[in-house]
Design brief:
Helices cover 51% and strands 0% of the residues. The chain is mainly alpha-helical and 156 residues long. α4 packs antiparallel against α6 (117-131). The N and C termini lie far apart (67 Å).
Length: 156
């Protein structure tokens, strides 16, 4: 793996994808991001490492435009502006990230053998949680329930 850190653009494939986005016309960039996410989220039996790396980078670009997201700042990501990405890409990015960490992913398999696997996995989870936040457990009821007896109409 030509990887130097855990960030979405910290590998050769994702850095090349950032360069490809920069070289594409502005109106082609959204379709490129969508295509990468669709390929990763698709029903294939196996997700290759390159498709997984591009999917993480594309998902980070979607996260960067989310109100709760952080910029995808990396000197290896695209430097040219992206168009406003449509909201439907958020769930496609979630599906792609789920496949990236699944047992059918070569990228997850390679990271499982790396020393900083847990940091990489946390970064993927962080991206996913921006797009599809987990529902926090409720600790107390939002309202109380009182019973009413039918014979007398009194609260008990």
């Amino acid at each position: 793996m030509g990887t130097w850190d855990i960030g979405p653009f910290d590998n050769d494939t994702a850095a090349d994808f950032g360069g490809d986005l920069d070289e594409a016309a502005l109106e082609e960039r959204e379709a490129m991001i969508r295509g990468v996410l669709k390929r990763a989220a698709g029903p294939a039996d196996f997700l290759g490492v390159s498709d997984g790396e591009r999917a993480v980078a594309a998902a980070a670009l979607v996260v960067a435009q989310h109100p709760a997201g952080d910029p995808a700042c990396s000197s290896y990501g695209p430097s040219e502006p992206l168009p406003e990405l449509p909201a439907d890409l958020r769930m496609l990015a979630v599906d792609a990230l789920d496949q990236v960490v699944s047992d059918r992913s070569e990228l997850a398999e390679l990271w499982a053998d790396a020393a900083n696997w847990s940091k990489w996995r946390q970064d993927i989870t962080r991206l996913r949680d921006v797009l599809d936040p987990p529902i926090p457990p409720q600790e107390e009821a939002l309202f109380g329930i009182s019973s009413v007896t039918q014979s007398h109409g009194r609260r008990t």
